[in-house]
Amino acid sequence: MERHGQATQLPYPPIRITKQNKSYAQAMLDNMGGRVSEMSAVSLYFYNHLITEKFPEVAELFHKISVTEMRHLEIFGKLACALGGNPRLWSSKPNGRHYWSPSYNTYSLELPQLLKNAIQSEKQAIEKYQRQSERIKDSNVVENLQRIILDEMEHVELLTACYHSITKG
Description:
Largest sheet: 2 strands, antiparallel
Number of helices: 5
CATH topology: Ferritin
Structural class: mainly alpha
């Protein structure tokens, strides 16, 4: 499980924007603190890391992925600031702002289900960031989204390989 793909070797694009855009800032804030967000991933993987301590390779995988997710959280926060947003862990909805909550995560004590939940959350993030990449017209924001998607795709591969090794072994 110690393998790492090419995505982890690629640099992240610089944080710069064409011009401030409140709509794009809100998207980045949702990536930080929405239901499907980097904060959700960081907190869930921290939990998973603690729960899986009897499986050191799995616990280490969750730790390493959480570090990458923290980097994504920072990127989205810097983009949100540059775009004119306030980088709190919140998202804007029609009925107001909602702060991030640990209740957004699905917690499991069963290793196969815990891995399935992580894979599902990674896939949801990929879908969300792909939709944003199609809608956002700022090329640097899109470059950052696409680079982060590569990491998320690699996480799906690593977690899927881990799931298969656990369920077959």
